Each structure stands twice: as C-alpha cells, then as structure tokens.
C-alpha cells in the first residue's frame, strides 16, 4: 500500500507455535522516501537513525479504565449445541494477547545507506 506521500507499508501475518499454543506474529515493512529524512541519492553511505512508535489499538472512548480480565468464558457450538468452557490458563493467555494489542511498541535502528555497486 502506498499513501499520498509515497510511503509504502506492507504487513504479513505469521502463525507459529509458542508453548504448544498457536500465536500470530506480524512483520511490518516501511519504505519511506529519502527526502523525508533530509537525504538524497547523493548521500549514499550516510548514517540514518530512526525511531517508529506504534501506539497499539486505542480503546473506544466509552471504555472506562483499564481492560478487565473475564472470570470465565463459555461458548456453544451451534452445530452440536455443546457448551465449551475455557480454562483459567486459557483466559489469562487470551487476556495477555488482548493487552499486547494495546501496548505501545517503539522500533529503533541505525542504518548506513547502501552505496551503488561499481
């Protein structure tokens, strides 16, 4: 995806097992034109420091206070009518996953711009 400033962003979702539990991870890539860093193609070899802050999901204004962890979850399978309950351990894991989406993440790095090969 490219916005009106020429900034390109891509995201990939990866499923992996962590502690015998499937988890989703995301890879986010940014391509920002050099002009926004005050650089040009003539500055090849220059060192670039950057910091990107991802604010996370912002709760709806009607949400008062910090999120509350549910005390129990039961769901019904529509095809069989069976009711499934979720263990306290699973509730804690789901709650932590939900909190992760609201946490601020700061990405920092230093790059040396590549020079063109001869």
Describe this structure in words.
This protein is mainly beta and 118 residues long. Helix content is 13%, strand content 39%. The chain has one helix spanning 88-102; strands at 8-18, 21-31, 47-54, 73-76, 83-86, 105-112. Strands 1-2 form a two-stranded antiparallel ribbon. It has a two-stranded antiparallel sheet with strand order 3-6. Strands 4-5 form a two-stranded antiparallel ribbon. It is elongated and about 70 Å long. The mean pLDDT is 79.
Low-confidence stretches: none
Strand content: 35-45%
Helix content: 10-25%
State the secondary-structure class.
Answer: mainly beta
- Mean pLDDT comes to 79
Identify the strand order in the major beta sheet. Answer: 1-2
Q: Using the alpha-carbon principal axes, give the shape.
A: elongated
Count the E strands. 6
Which sheet architecture does the biggest sheet show? 2 strands, antiparallel
> What is the straight-line distance between the termini?
32 Å
Rg of Cα set? 22 Å
Along the chain, the helix and strand elements come as EEEEEHE
How many DSSP helices? 1
């Amino acid at each position: 995806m490219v916005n009106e400033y020429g900034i390109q962003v891509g995201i990939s979702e990866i499923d992996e097992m962590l502690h015998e539990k499937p988890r989703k991870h995301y890879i986010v890539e940014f391509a920002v034109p050099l002009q926004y860093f005050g650089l040009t193609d003539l500055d090849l070899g220059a060192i670039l420091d950057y910091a990107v802050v991802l604010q996370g999901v912002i709760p709806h204004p009607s949400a008062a206070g910090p999120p509350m962890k549910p005390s129990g979850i039961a769901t019904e399978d529509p095809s069989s009518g069976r009711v499934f309950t979720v263990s306290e351990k699973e509730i804690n894991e789901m709650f932590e996953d939900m909190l992760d989406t609201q946490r601020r993440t700061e990405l920092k790095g230093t790059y040396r711009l590549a020079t063109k090969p001869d």
